[in-house]
Structure formats: C-alpha cells, structure tokens
C-alpha cells in the first residue's frame, strides 16, 4: 500500500514538474548555420537550398529518407538548368529533453521562434548575395516552418526567396505568394485536408505501430509511427516531381 502511494506521488510530481518545464522552461535554440560563417561556403553557388525535416525538425539530411530524395532530385533538376546548388540544413529542435519541450512550445506557437530566426538569417543572405536564389524546403511541420518564414520576411527579400512546402498541416496559414509552391498530393493528403476521421484512426494506430516496430527491431520514434494517409511525397509521383520541375522552370530558370 505504501509503495503504491509513493508511486502515485512520484507520478504526480513528475507530471507537475513536466508541466512547469513546458510552461516556464528556457527556450533551447538548436545549433544552426551562422550566416557570417557560411559566406565562403555559398560564395560559388547559384542557389541555396534550406532543408527542414518533418517531425521534430532535427533529422539530419542524410537520414531524412522521407524528403531528402526529393531535395536531391531538385538539385539534379537545377544542375540540368545550368545552376549549382548547396543544401544547408536548419533544425527546429535540439535533440534533448529540454530541447523537445522548447520545440513543442514553438510548435504550438506556429513556429514563432524558429521562423523568426530563419527569416532573419535569410534576410542577411538575401542582402549579402542579391543575385543568388534561396529555396526553403520542408515536409509536414517543415513545410509549416517554410510558410511561416516567408510570412515574416520583408517584401524585398521575398523577391529572391522561394519555398517548396510539402504536406503543410491544415491549421497552418499558407501565404498567398507566387514564390511558394504548396504540395498536397492533389488533395489526397489527409493532414493537409484536415480529414478528422483518417487522422484520428492514424493517431490510435500509432502506439501499436511503434510497439510492433520495437518488437521487430526497427528503431523508429513514436512520431514516425504516426502515418497520415496520403502524407508521403515521392518524386516519381506526378503530384510532386512534375509540379516542382514546372515551378523551378517558371521561377528559377
């Protein structure tokens, strides 16, 4: 009986402390590219591609199997047009406990913090290199960040900054800009469309998918176990590759 009461007390204290950390914890800013430090790196590049993954936004480019292949095809397309490019990752969340809490707060605030930081950095690059093009790319929450960043940039900077946002969640406001390409798998992405029934079912299935993956020895996170129907983006799909190529031809080439 005493042990049960102690366990309940421990759980209660843990929940309270977690809530306090969420509400009043310090903002943890991930380490990202410093504009001054990458000037020499981008000096001989025609186009700068800013990459942001989905989920927590901390997946390295080389491990982002869901969207990195699309970025690589974008680079090949640009090379075919005669442009060389460089991919620069941008992380929304630091991969620590306090970083996750900070990232969750940023998510609930529509990426107010991370989009402010990225917008400021891109303003600097756009001013430093007025003849270069900058493309912000992102999947899911990364697409949301791309949209929010464009919204926070000056009109002058927007002339040389473009965005390719795939699978932006339905509650995120999308900017009315000709420089932004919104991909939604031709209306088949349940997360973009806000298909409540499909999303609720996917949410219920996620914990079971996660446990099943652990049993099979697959190392996936709980967020990766959540699959919204229609939320995968493949370059070979006509709703993805061909639309991106047309966008690049009209805006960049």
Description:
The protein is of the alpha/beta class and 253 residues long. It has helices at 2-24, 39-42, 68-80, 97-108, 112-128, 141-152, 155-158, 190-193, 196-215, 222-225, 241-251; strands at residues 47-52, 85-89, 133-139, 161-166, 180-183. The protein has a five-stranded parallel sheet, with helices on both faces. The protein is globular and about 50 Å long. Strand 1 (47-52), helix 3 (68-80) and strand 2 form a beta-alpha-beta unit. It contains eleven helices and five strands. The model is unreliable at 2-25 (pLDDT under 50). Helices cover 49% and strands 11% of the residues. The termini are far apart. The chain has two domains: 16-189 and 232-251, Rossmann fold (3-Layer(aba) Sandwich); 195-229, no CATH class.
CATH architecture type of the largest domain: 3-Layer(aba) Sandwich
- Radius of gyration (CA) equals 20 Å
Unreliable segments of 5+ consecutive residues: 2-25
What percent of residues are in strands?
Answer: 5-15%
Q: Which CATH class of the largest domain is shown? A: Alpha Beta
**Average pLDDT reading:** 82
Give the biggest sheet: 5 strands, parallel
Number of strands: 5
State the CATH superfamily name of the largest domain: Alpha/Beta hydrolase fold, catalytic domain
């Amino acid at each position: 009986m005493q042990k049960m009461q102690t366990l309940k007390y421990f759980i209660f204290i843990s929940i309270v402390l977690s809530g306090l950390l969420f509400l009043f914890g310090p903002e943890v800013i991930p380490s990202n590219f410093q504009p001054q430090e990458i000037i020499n790196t981008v000096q001989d590049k025609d186009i700068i591609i800013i990459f942001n993954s989905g989920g927590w936004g901390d997946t390295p480019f080389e491990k982002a199997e869901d969207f990195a292949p699309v970025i690589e095809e974008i680079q090949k397309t640009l090379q075919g047009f005669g442009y060389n490019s460089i991919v620069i990752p941008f992380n929304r969340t630091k991969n620590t406990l306090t970083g996750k809490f900070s990232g969750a707060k940023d998510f609930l605030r529509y990426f107010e913090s991370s989009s402010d930081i990225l917008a400021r950095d891109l303003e600097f690059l756009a001013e430093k290199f007025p003849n270069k093009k900058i493309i912000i790319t992102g999947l899911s929450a990364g697409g949301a960040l791309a949209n929010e960043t464009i919204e926070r940039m000056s009109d002058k900077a927007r002339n040389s900054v473009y965005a390719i946002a795939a699978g932006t969640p339905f509650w995120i406001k999308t900017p009315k800009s000709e420089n932004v390409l919104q991909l939604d798998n031709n209306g088949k992405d349940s997360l973009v469309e806000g298909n409540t029934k499909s999303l609720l079912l996917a949410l219920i299935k996620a914990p079971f998918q996660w446990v099943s993956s652990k049993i099979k020895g697959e190392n996936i996170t709980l967020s990766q176990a959540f699959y919204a129907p229609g939320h995968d983006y493949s370059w070979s799909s006509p709703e993805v590759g061909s639309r991106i190529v047309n966008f690049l031809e009209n805006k960049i080439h």
